[in-house]
Amino acid sequence: EGFGLPPVALEDATKARAMVRSSTYARTCSWSAVLGVAFVVPLCAAFSIPGLSGISTKVAARNGMALGGLQPAGLTFSARCLRPSKCISRSRALQMSSETEVEERRLELTLGELCKTLVSVCTSGTLCTTLPVFEDAQGSVLERFGPESQANIEKWERDGKEYPFGTLVTYLLNEKGEPYMLLANNAAHTRNLQNNPKVALYAQNPKSPGQAGARVTLVGEIQKITSPAELKDCKEFYADRFPEQAAPLEDERFERFFSMYKIQLKDIYYVSGFGVTTCWVAPLEFSKAESDPLAAFSQDLVDEWNESRQDDYQSLAQAFFGEDLGVESVDSPRITFMDRFGFDFRFRFPRKDGQKSSGSDKQALDIREYRVGFRQQAMSREEAQSSMFKMLQEAWEKNHGFDDDEWGESRSPPFILKRATDKKIEDPVAAGRPTTVRPA
User: Fold this and answer.
1) What are the strands of the beta sheet with 342-350, ordered from one edge?
2) In the chain, N or C: fewer CB atoms in 10 Å?
């Protein structure tokens, strides 16, 4: 009755059809019945309601009969058995609740997530292979790329040397986090890896270059993909991401000129902006991690804000750090990184000891970098903008004397973590664990 279908329709199909001769009433009741079946029957099975879950199949079948004369053109209904409801134990429910609370209190990404986010955003990097060379007694290079015949192997093993050799490559990550790449068979790096499969892939976001940007080095052994199924999937994946490289992938002479490779990861080295965090990350953690949802556009937002919101940054620094540092203004405030949990805020300010810069009469500056957490996780561009503007608004209100009690609120300060100074680097995630904030 709650969905508009007379109860008799569930018991007697003939009577139900007779009651809906009117076309208007028929259309109304038919769609109401569809909603009733779509919502009520699955709910009965999903929550295992006593007395209902056992007859859900019969009800579905009888509803199908009752709706036989009410079906709009093009729609069909069929009775089918519903899967039994999936029940979880109370202990599992408490564990899921605990995991949710920990996720909500997290202040930053794990090291695995940081690396996966950075490597996923980049589509090109520097592939480092080892270049075999043969030198004479004076150190002049005589031959390169290793022995080309069996007769020269002993000579190369005795007198040959290897030097690092970097080249630019494009790549994609598969579901395990292993980089896929398309290499020409006659390329220098391809000839190098045939002698030594040990490689390293260096990646850094081109929108955040230099020492200010985070970077990752993936270390492992490279393998040629020979499985027909994996090769087919890899080609399709690669052509979809790099349309300009689709032609050689579809050419029937592909294997003659090109090959697909993947790197089996052995270790990962991560360096954050300005070297605030430097550490090794386990490949398993990297493989299981997910890229941050803001990764595709976060750097664009950060660049835009750094250019246009210097006054707001000054207000932010004064509100949350001015009292502790004893300063009213800061020098060169900027955001260095942002993810769904918050952002890294870096600035300089005059040193309290009055020390001068070396070779200058200007006062020396101290450096601080803090991790500032959003009030809520931001999962989209709009939510990131909203969370940031709320933080700036909160700073403005604090600087202008607006008390939370005046608004009927009791707001705690935002979660803030000191990251680095000019004298000491503090690494809160050295073990690769997510930083959580415990209530006081």
Assistant:
1) 331-339, 342-350, 365-373, 416-421
2) C
